[in-house]
C-alpha cells in the first residue's frame, strides 16, 4: 500500500442515513445482537439530527435521521439511495499527513480537519469524498 495506507490504523465506524434511526438501530439490536451504545438527539441538544449508536464487540454503527422535515441533504440522499451507508470512518495515525496526501493527489476534501472536544477529551477529524455520495471520515 502507499503511504496513506500505512497511516490507517483501523476501521472505526459506519454511519447510515435512514428514515427512522430509532427503528433501524433497534432492528439491528434485536436481529443481529448489537447493543445500544450512545445517543444524540433533542434531549442532548441536537436540533437537526438524531443519532443512535449501537455496538457489537469492536463494531460500531451510527444510525442518523433528520429531525426537521426540510433537511434537503438527508432527504435527497434517502430518496436517491433509500436507507444506507453515508460514511465509513477510519482511525488514522497522522490526520494532517493523510489529508495533505489526499489533497496533493487530487482528492476532494469535504470537510477539512476539525476538532471535537468534551469532558472526556478531544479528537481531530476530516472528511473526504469517495465513490458517489459515500464519504470517509478520518479520525
From TrEMBL:
Cofactors required: Fe cation
The enzyme's E.C. designation: 1.13.11.27
Pfam family, one: Glyoxalase_4
Top-level EC class as recorded in UniProt: oxidoreductase
Signal peptide positions (record): none
Keywords assigned by UniProt, alphabetized: Iron, Metal-binding, Phenylalanine catabolism, Repeat, Tyrosine catabolism
Molecular function via GO: 4-hydroxyphenylpyruvate dioxygenase activity; metal ion binding
Pathway the protein acts in: Amino-acid degradation; L-phenylalanine degradation; acetoacetate and fumarate from L-phenylalanine: step 3/6
CDD domains per UniProt: HPPD_N_like (cd08342)
Domain VOC: 10-139
GO CC annotation terms, alphabetical: endoplasmic reticulum membrane; Golgi membrane
GO biological process: L-phenylalanine catabolic process; L-tyrosine catabolic process
Family that this chain belongs to: Belongs to the 4HPPD family.
PANTHER family attached to this UniProt entry: 4-HYDROXYPHENYLPYRUVATE DIOXYGENASE (PTHR11959)
Protein name in UniProt: 4-hydroxyphenylpyruvate dioxygenase
Record lineage: Eukaryota, Metazoa, Spiralia, Gnathifera, Rotifera
